[in-house]
Design a protein that fits this description.
Layout: H1 10-29, H2 34-46, H3 73-78, H4 81-84, H5 95-109, H6 125-132, H7 135-142, H8 152-166, H9 171-174, E1 189-193, H10 195-204, E2 211-215, H11 223-235, E3 241-246, H12 258-270, H13 273-288, E4 291-295, H14 310-317, E5 321-325, H15 327-334, H16 345-348, E6 356-361, H17 372-385, E7 395-401
Helix pairs in contact: 1-2, 2-5, 8-11, 11-13, 12-13
Length: 402
């Protein structure tokens, strides 16, 4: 299991480097009143790194505030609060649990759940809006006009790759990563590419029956290509229906919510050319039910997907294929463990209730399904460059189990 306090680890750097930057960004993003700013400062102090780089001691993980209604309190009690909160430091618990509790505590600090004037105000909205209004989004939407010059198979792959590399737009990753590195650089590579199997699986479904589910990761520059891919699948008949699963509330800096989906659809629809046409189709698909938005409390759980509740398992089990986007979904899919990277993807995901495909840019240590020669070469490069191939965001995988 990946632990949050392992010396020199990526997990520890998220707590020591990324979270303090994020808390400052959130505090600067809205004109929060003094009580909210004090709560954010207290969370920063509580989660601060121990003085020694190899220490795992420090303040215990604090609880949610008392005296207010928290609709998910019972869920978090089932998810393990009693095992960690008030008993363990932030650097002495599983990384997946620590990250999730940090974001849940952040939402409590800013009053998301209320009652009060800041109830339902997305603390990450300023950075989401800025990204959506940026020149990069405009250029990526304009590039859709070039799809007409591609053969159908090339068009399929172009849109799938756009959804794959869109995962690198994760705003949390960009808090500490070099945003100047792009997946178009020579060093970028898809380390495992099962996309042919995905297309064959969709083609094998009886006409008019395929239901594609997509578990989204980030809003903005990642969600836009996800929506465009779903439109493409619907428009070409690869999918008769599509379901987009998002978070029930803001989470992990840029995780997509229903509000983010609607903002992205509007942004696509405002663009000229092929993008604007796509936006019109997306609105129509949402309106007539061919494209549905779903959410579930478990998407904010600090647990692997192997622990998903029965209702979510039943829904995903009815999909022709489920596309899982992004790094966090990947960690939850295979389990946030120090797997040997040559471990089998199919074996690690055998519990999943239906066919699936993971589209993921590598931004954390967990990875499976690679061949030994690839791993050896990547490890050698990392020793030379001093940059971990597992966490740089330079590499990606498309892994399927049908």
């Amino acid at each position: 299991m990946v632990m949050s306090g392992t010396p020199g680890s990526f997990a520890r750097s998220v707590l020591t480097d990324r979270h303090p930057v994020l808390l400052r960004q959130v505090a600067d993003g809205h004109p929060y009143p003094p009580d909210v700013r004090r709560a954010l400062d207290a969370l920063a102090e509580e989660t601060a790194a121990p003085a020694a780089a190899d220490a795992t001691d420090g303040p215990s993980m604090g609880p949610l505030p008392t005296g207010a209604a928290f609709p998910d309190r019972e869920l978090w009690e089932r998810w393990g609060v009693a095992h960690y909160v008030g008993r363990k430091s932030w650097y002495d618990v599983p990384f997946l649990w620590a990250e999730n509790w940090f974001y849940r505590r952040l939402l409590a600090a800013v009053g998301w759940f209320g009652p009060g004037p800041w109830q339902g105000v997305d603390p990450f909205a300023p950075v989401k809006r800025a990204e959506l209004a940026g020149a990069e989004v405009a250029a990526e939407l304009a590039a859709l006009d070039g799809l007409d010059a591609l053969a159908p198979g090339e068009r399929d792959q172009a849109l799938l790759r756009a959804a794959l590399w869109g995962n690198r737009a994760d705003l949390g990753f960009r808090l500490t990563a070099d945003a100047g590195t792009t997946p178009d650089s020579a060093a970028s590579a898809v380390l495992a590419d099962d996309s042919p199997a995905l297309w064959r699986h969709l083609a094998a479904a009886p006409p008019g029956t395929a239901a594609v589910h997509l578990i989204a990761d980030n809003a903005g520059r990642e969600l836009i290509p996800d929506l465009i891919l779903l439109d493409h699948l619907l428009n070409t008949g690869r999918a008769a229906t599509a379901v987009l699963h998002v978070k029930p509330y803001p989470y992990f800096v840029s995780d997509a919510t229903t509000a983010d989906v609607l903002e992205c659809v509007r942004r696509i629809g405002r663009a000229p050319g092929r993008a604007g046409e796509t936006g019109v189709r997306l609105r129509e698909a949402l309106g007539d039910g061919r494209l549905a938005i779903r959410t579930h409390p478990f998407f904010c759980a600090p647990l692997p997907y192997a622990a998903m509740p029965g209702d979510l398992r039943a829904e995903l089990g009815g999909a022709t294929v489920t596309l899982l986007k992004g790094d966090l979904n990947y960690r939850r899919l295979v389990g946030d463990r120090w797997w040997p990277p040559t471990s089998g993807f199919a074996a690690a995901t055998a519990y999943f209730p239906g066919p699936l495909a993971a589209l993921r840019t590598l931004k954390s240590d967990v990875v499976v399904g690679l061949d030994a020669a690839t791993v050896a070469g990547l490890d050698a490069d990392s020793r030379t460059t001093g940059t971990s191939w597992r966490t740089s965001g330079t590499y990606a995988v498309v892994q399927t189990r049908t």
